[in-house]
Write a structure and sequence with these properties.
12% helix, signal, 30% strand, 96 residues
Length: 96
């Protein structure tokens, strides 16, 4: 019985690391619903989903810069990899 439990425990510990979240994910308020996901940073100007109110850079990202203009012009707000904000306040972003 003890060896069966040990084998089961080892199976859980040996789960692949790829099961962990990765990339950059945008969410609605209070991290309620995922609204967009980006696998790798490109630095390109990208429209921010209108309902996005938070993001988490799980891996591979060092900064997300938000803009109030749709073309990534004007004042840039550097937000790092974990931030909440008012939905609709920002219209575009660049992820690095």
């Amino acid at each position: 019985m003890a060896s069966a439990m040990m084998v089961v425990g080892l199976g859980v510990a040996a789960s692949p690391a790829s099961a962990a979240p990765s990339g950059l994910t945008f969410y609605t308020a209070n991290f309620g619903t995922e609204v967009a996901h980006v696998d790798t940073p490109t630095g390109k100007c990208t429209p921010l989903p209108a309902t996005a109110a938070a993001h988490v850079g799980w891996s591979g990202f060092s900064d997300v810069v938000l803009y109030r203009a749709a073309d990534c012009t004007g004042y840039a707000t550097s937000t790092g990899t974990l931030r909440t904000y008012e939905a609709g306040k920002y219209l575009s972003y660049r992820a690095f």
